[in-house]
Design goal:
The complex is a heterodimer of chains A (about 250) and B (about 270). Chain A contains seven helices and ten strands. Chain A is of the alpha/beta class and about 250 residues long. Chain A has one domain: Glutaconate Coenzyme A-transferase (3-Layer(aba) Sandwich), CATH 3.40.1080. In chain A, strand 4 and strand 5 form a beta hairpin. Chain B folds into two domains: about 200 residues, Glutaconate Coenzyme A-transferase (3-Layer(aba) Sandwich); about 35 residues, no CATH class. Chain B contains nine helices and twelve strands. The chains are: A alpha/beta (about 250), B alpha/beta (about 270). Chains A and B meet through helix 3, helix 4 and helix 7 of A and helix 4, helix 5, helix 6 and helix 7 of B.
Amino acid sequence: MNYRPEELLAVTLAKLIRAVPTAHIAVGAASPIPAAACWLVVKQGDPVRLSLLHKRSGNPFTEGTRELFDLTGQGRIDLFFLGGGEIDGQANLNLIGTGGWPGREVRFPGSFGSAFMYFMAGRTILFREEHSPRVLVKQVANISAPGISEAGVFRRGHAQALVTGRCVFAFHPDRGRFSLASVHPGETVQSIRDMTGFDFDVDGDVPETTPPTDAELALLRSTICDEMLETYPDFCARVFNRKQAA
Amino acid sequence: MTPISLEAMAASVPDGALLALPPDNSLPSVALAKALIRRGARNLRLLGVPVSGFATDILIGAGCVASVQTSAVSLGEAGFAPRFTAALKAGKITIQDATCPAIHTMLQASEKGVPFMPLRGLIGSDILANRPDWRVVESPFGTGEKIVLLPALNPDVAAFHGVMADSHGNIYVGRRRECATLAHASKRALVTVERVIEANFLEDERMAPGTINATYISAFAIAARGARPAALLDEYGFDADYVATYARAAKTDAGFADWCAEHVFESQAVAAE
């Protein structure tokens, strides 16, 4: 294998971005791999506008941090990324914690904008590197943001997919369930079942996730690393072995 | 308008105040947070606008805080906020969870002087289920849409760090306009700055859009590098090493106490000499 797991994930996310017409993507704080995926789409020539929330120089928002939410409320953000300390089979997200409210066993940082963005972005790609029964659970302990909504509640978008360190799931809001879309090299349907706390659908043969091409890897390691160095110095040092100049 | 001392500013924040603080990417006054620790502030009710970071964690660690309303508490790449996590687990603080746009909306209601404002999303979230002060109504405009109403939120004190004040007490914060909303929505705004400039920013077309009018500012104090370790616009960057060192030290009560002695009390004594 001539690539790192993070690079496979970035390339996989980029394919999901390009699978749907996308004009404007917003990327939040602790999201270096989704940010790398967005830069890949841009550097491959797609005319996508990127709004990177935590970029210090050239931050896109001039009306304050509320502007992202106002934009999203209007429907001007086509794609957002979310994760979760727990994610369940109905695509509910828990960023609060395990045990009773407000996270009596293990407290997570909190919900950030998820309880709004998940409803109002055109679509959401769920991303969590750790794929284990403690993260992918049958039912989340606390719901920060629900995967589907009842009638009478305005909702513009849902999860498009859930990408983990082991596989890609597609989400089907009509039936409120995930299906297995591809497994990363080294994984099987059974190994995914063993490591997943929720039940999911398997429709026919499940392909292996396509590995990165040399061209994709070259882009990630050069110009995309350049773009990300200021915002994600630790990530760039770890994955691309590049340190920011002092 | 003339600057007051940082310690006088800290003394003017009463115990029990609802104190609104921006997070690490949004001009926190870490200098004032440290001064509040030195003055032994107690029972502060912190509001994260819209989330909470380093300043909140050190105030909690020093025992200054009774409760936090926020959408998240985090040290960014350095991970979970250790003193917040420990204090919550020990039952020393309570948390009222929100989501970022809800906090903005509640402050915007105060800014407009209206009692509440609607916000989409939220329905089906346990955040809403744990907020008896938030209400779901059906749109009165006949669409049948269910929507959440949020009450106006009017902090006792807003605290943040601007780049500079001018001779009239106008404060320059550049594009961080959330500090303006915060100042508009709060009873008092206390601001630390790097320096004071002989000028009137409101007379300068290039400065005025990034300036908060002195009307909204109760007092300002000079605190060089007052956002540290957070970044300040194009003046200085985020000090990731400082926060990582803190995150390691603050894993334990004793580690935090040592960190606090060195970085909150001793460093002040040196600066005052």
